[in-house]
């Protein structure tokens, strides 16, 4: 059971270049006009993808619950809402999409299910490719494909065809082991999405506690919570000088800090990547690290599936 489970997870991670190529073929969509406000929304991994896409589109990432509680978000002239959900069944997301459509917004669903409630609540569907395995898996390939599909129309000056090759190269990149116990993942701008997503995968697969925070927030709060021996992983971009300064200050004082990125100052070096595509590439070494941890511990179930009571509560609240 353990071998089958981890083999399916590894296959999903390794299939990402092919699935990204399929996304480029399947998921193209055109906003159709100019908008006064572009909102990206989704829950869980889909919200992390929304953060990255919003940065590329000069839009906003707003959780669907916040849209439902404050519909004024939808009342800023011409609004485009991009709603992300691989399954298309997350209740809060499709309700926010339906409300936006009622209020006159144009709604685009990013989903693998064209027959889903989210697709029905939307004006247009950017269809995601389906994974090869039907087994319940932590969101690996679905995260990258949904992020790429959401941001594609706003990357006209970026070589999107390079994305699968960049991810292929990143799959061969090794990073220091994330030892059991609390770690901290730090990123700003589009890489805030990477930090949040990485922490979520450590929790979902392993049950490890991981803090995720913005670069500035780290200096105010999380810095004071981290033992010097615990891993601190930072995700830089070319427009975020502060994170490099944080990394230097930590290393000089003996903290266990690692930077994942394209620059020469990074301990984990990735292929040279446009800033817009960094979230697609930066999370791949973390995915591999999570897989290796799972292999080392010989896990027989994803952490989120171990507690049936909590899983039932989660399902009731989400779907």
Number of strands: 10
Discrete helix count:
14
Q: Tell me the fraction of residues in β-strands, as a range.
A: 5-15%
User: Which CATH C-level class of the largest domain is it?
Assistant: Alpha Beta
Bulk shape: globular
Biggest sheet, spatial arrangement of strands: 2-1-3-4-5
CATH superfamily of the largest domain: Glucose-6-phosphate isomerase like protein, domain 1
Structural class by sheet pairing and helices: alpha/beta
Strand and helix order: HHEHEHEHEHEHHEHEHEHEEHHH
Query: What is the typical, i.e. mean, pLDDT?
Result: 91
CATH topology name of the largest domain, in short, is Rossmann fold
How many discrete domains? 2
Given as residue ranges, the uncertain stretches (5+ residues, pLDDT < 50) are: none
- At CATH level 2, the architecture of the largest domain is 3-Layer(aba) Sandwich
Q: Any idea what the radius of gyration is?
A: 19 Å
Helix content: 40-55%
What can you see in these coordinates?
This protein has 319 residues and is of the alpha/beta class. The chain folds into two domains: 161 residues, Rossmann fold (3-Layer(aba) Sandwich); 125 residues, Glucose-6-phosphate isomerase like protein, domain 1 (Rossmann fold, 3-Layer(aba) Sandwich). It has a five-stranded parallel β-sheet, sandwiched between helices. The chain has a five-stranded parallel β-sheet with strand order 7-6-8-9-10, sandwiched between helices. Strand 3, helix 5 and strand 4 form a beta-alpha-beta unit. The longest helix is centred in the C-terminal third of the chain and has 20 residues.
